[in-house]
Amino acid sequence: MIAGGLATIFVTDFDRAVKFYSEILEMKLVFRSGDLWAEVSAGPGMTIGLHPISPNAAKPGTNGSTVVGLEVKQPIETVISELRARGVILSGELMNDDPVKIQNFLDPDGNELYLFEAKHD
Fold this sequence. Notes:
It is built from two helices and eight strands, in the order βαββββαβββ. The chain is an alpha/beta fold.
């Protein structure tokens, strides 16, 4: 019935957000409509839409308004080290809740995201 989805994140600086998601996090920029809308792919089944803030939109960076989880392809510790080197702000410590490891972090607007590494049987 459902064939995928899209999480929309409202941002204050559109170019900065596109650069963060496509270059820092290395997601594929799949579509951009000027400074009005962009989509980045985080892998099969996960697309993130970037939208500039507007009067009717939620305030970017409001805790709990948006949380996006991104599954890593490498060991999470390696990804964390790479993101730290790129200036990404991590939130808290790596949580190791067998069978999943989770690391929270923030985008440039303060929107909360998290990385996760799951053991699959």
